[in-house]
């Protein structure tokens, strides 16, 4: 088909996001493009991280512009924010429904398919009449790398 299909994944995603905005009667302004590009490259990022990334190439973009752009893009469901622990929320391009897994040791953030939460969502609805929005959820725990490191340290301590 078109060149968008064969383009680099970020370029393809950029074109898709432009179409979403156009479909809602909005333009892809240079500032919106810079913020979206930063999120596509950074993954999960605070507004301050997005601003710092953007300012590397365009120092005239300020934090207020970044916040306003993120708010607009979130209202259009192009990006979403999640509280991944203490501090500022982290924003990401809304590509698929997922739950965040946050390692409380190293701070690593992974994504898990939202389907893993289906049993919990069903139980909450049946027993409490509560509809959980698990896509906004961050679960805290220990990542596989930190668990392996803890096991190795434990084995080293037991060795005479």
Walk me through the structure.
With 160 residues, this protein is of the alpha+beta class. The chain has seven helices and five strands; from the N terminus they run αααααββββαβα. The protein has helices at 3-6, 9-23, 30-42, 47-55, 63-75, 118-128, 144-158; strands at residues 79-82, 90-93, 98-103, 109-113, 138-141. The strands form two sheets. It has a three-stranded mixed sheet with strand order 4-3-5, with no helix packed on it. The chain has a two-stranded antiparallel ribbon with strand order 1-2. α3 packs across α4 (47-55). It is globular. The model is unreliable at 1-6 (pLDDT under 50).
Helical residue percent? Answer: 40-55%
Look at the structure and give the mean pLDDT.
85
Tally of structural domains: 2
- Strand composition percent: 5-15%
Secondary structure category: alpha+beta
Number of strands: 5
**What's the CATH H-level superfamily name of the largest domain?**
Winged helix-like DNA-binding domain superfamily/Winged helix DNA-binding domain
Q: Give me the Rg, rounded.
A: 19 Å
**What's the SSE pattern?**
HHHHHEEEEHEH
- The rounded distance between the terminal residues' Cα atoms is 65 Å
Low-pLDDT residue spans: 1-6
Largest sheet features? 3 strands, mixed
**CATH class assignment of the largest domain:** Mainly Alpha
Q: What multimeric state do the chains show?
A: single chain
* Strands ordered across the widest β-sheet: 4-3-5
| C-alpha geometry | globular
CATH architecture field of the largest domain: Orthogonal Bundle
Which fold name is given in CATH as the topology of the largest domain? Arc Repressor Mutant, subunit A
Q: Tally the helices: what do you get?
A: 7
Binding site for Zn(2+): 103, 106, 143, 146
InterPro entries: FUR, Fur_C, WH-like_DNA-bd_sf, WH_DNA-bd_sf
GO molecular function, one term: DNA-binding transcription factor activity
Cofactor: Zn(2+)
């Amino acid at each position: 088909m078109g060149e968008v299909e064969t383009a680099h994944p970020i370029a393809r995603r950029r074109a898709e996001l432009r179409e979403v905005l156009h479909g809602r009667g909005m333009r892809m302004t240079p500032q919106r493009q810079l913020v979206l590009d930063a999120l596509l490259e950074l993954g999960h990022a605070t507004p301050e991280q997005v601003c710092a990334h953007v300012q590397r190439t365009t120092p005239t973009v300020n934090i207020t512009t970044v916040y306003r752009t993120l708010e607009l893009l979130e209202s259009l469901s192009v990006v979403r924010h999640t509280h991944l622990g203490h501090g500022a929320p982290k924003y990401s391009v809304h590509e698929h429904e997922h739950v965040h897994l946050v390692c409380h040791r190293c701070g690593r953030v992974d994504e898990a398919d939202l389907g893993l939460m289906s049993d919990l969502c069903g139980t909450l609805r049946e027993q409490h009449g509560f509809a959980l929005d698990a896509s906004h959820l961050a679960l805290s725990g220990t990542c596989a790398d930190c668990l392996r490191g803890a096991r190795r340290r434990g084995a080293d301590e037991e060795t005479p």
